[in-house]
Structures are given as structure tokens and as C-alpha cells.
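Supplementary Methods, section 5.1.

A reviewer requested that the exact input to the structure prediction be made available. We therefore reproduce it here, unchanged from the version used in the analyses.
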Amino acid sequence: MPLALIISSHVAASHVGGSAQASALSTFKIDAMVVPTVLFGRHPGWGLPGGAKVEPEVIEGMLAGIEANRLFGQTDLVLTGYFAFPEQVAAAAKAIDAVRGAKRKGYAGAAPRQPVVIVDPTLGDAGKGLYVPAEVAEAVVELLVPRADVLAPNLWELAHLTGEDVRTVEEALIAARRLGKPALVSSAPCGKEIGVIYAAEGEAWMAAHPRQPSAPKGTGDLLSALFGAALLDGLTSSYALGRAVGGVAETVAAAHASGAAELPILAMAQRLKAASPSVRLERLT
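The structure derived from this sequence is encoded cell-by-cell as follows.
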């Protein structure tokens, strides 16, 4: 059974961060080990979240316990998200190196599967700017961006990472190419649609769907988890993009239709696994 390591926030009453990703992965029969960077009662967007940031030494100890059980060698997917301290970022970088360096074995004569590392550089957003301490942002850029197999920034974070003015799909594609590795760029504006761009060497795709008037928090977290699950299922990048964006689109549409304040991830479990008729897949290059 596939295994994921998630290093991100835990928010008890909001479907965001690592706990939301673990819920999404469970629908694909992917077990998740969640190492929380914060323990909050609710998303800060609602107001004071309650709870506390997790001290770096606690995270280091949790990761050491996971490694002691030889689970790094069984980890197929690593997802990173929100960090509160630069030392947490350093611990995550060390864990990624340990996962990649761990001894692996194949099954039924197959070669061992190499882990996929998806880094969501959770730094800020349009209209808000940087919402993590500057030293955390610097640590993510220095330590996690180079270690990613796939980077998953939103449009604002892409501009922050590249220093480019990114406002259109065309500008986003140019900036994503400059990252030097595959990128999954969310919140790309497409008129009445909203799109996600996947850009890698030799190919680029966009999956777009009708824009909803509003969306609960956590869509980026859900997107990274669904894209990672699709890659573990052996889908090509374009099909992985289409299925992942379809799952997000259907979940956001369901939340809007029901007036839900949070993403109904488990309620949409079956829809997360299927392509959505609302998603338009377009090859960009």
C-alpha cells in the first residue's frame, strides 16, 4: 500500500493543510504520516486560530521516530506545505534527503519505486502578500525548492519565487519555466475560468474550469495531494493534471452549492477519482 509523508499544518476545524491532504489521500488508499508544523483550532482566515506553533525539536523528534521504524524507505510521496519556523523547514529538508537515501525494495520483481516530492511553497497570496515570516520564506526557497520534484505555487508565489510580474497564463508559463523543474501553478486567470498550469521540460498543459464566486480555503493543499495521488497511480502528467483539477473543481462546486464553509473532501470521495466534465484541458506547448 502506498505511503505518504506530509509535513504541514494541522487545523482541527478547517479542511486545510496536512490533515485535509491525509483525508484526500485516504480515498486513494494511500496511508499518510502527518507531521504537523502548527496545531490550530481553525484557519487563521476565520480570525484567531487558537492552538500553537509546533516547536522545531518536536518535529525533529517525530521525524526521527518515523525513520527509526524504517518507514522512510517505504515512503512513496512527500508533501510539504505551511511552516512556522525556519528550523522546521531545515528538518523537512533533512527528512526529504533521508527518504531519498533510504534503502528500498521492489515488489513482485518490479524495480523499487522512487519517492515523489511535491513542495507547495506556502508563502503568501494575492492581496495579502507574504503571510509567513521572511526567514521562513527564505528557508523554503533555499532548502525546499531545490529538493522538489514538483513545485506547486499559486500565481503570487510563482511571482515571488522568480521575481517576475506574473498576471497572465503566458507570463505564468514563462516564469514557471524559469524555476528549472516541473511546476504546478494554481490560480491562473482565464477570463471567466480559473486554471492550473503544469509546466515541465518539453511540455506544458493547462486545466481550466468555470470560476466560482467564492471557494473555501485549502484548494491548493487539495490540489497537491490529488496530483501526487495521480502520479502514484501511474498517470501521465496531463491526465494527472486533469484528474486533480477536476477533483478540486467538483469539491469547490459542491461547497458552493451547499453553502459549505469548508471543503467537503470526504463527501466528494468518489468524485476525486474521476475526471470532471467541467474541466477543459489544453496543451500550451
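The first helix runs from residue 17 to 26. These observations are discussed further in the main text.
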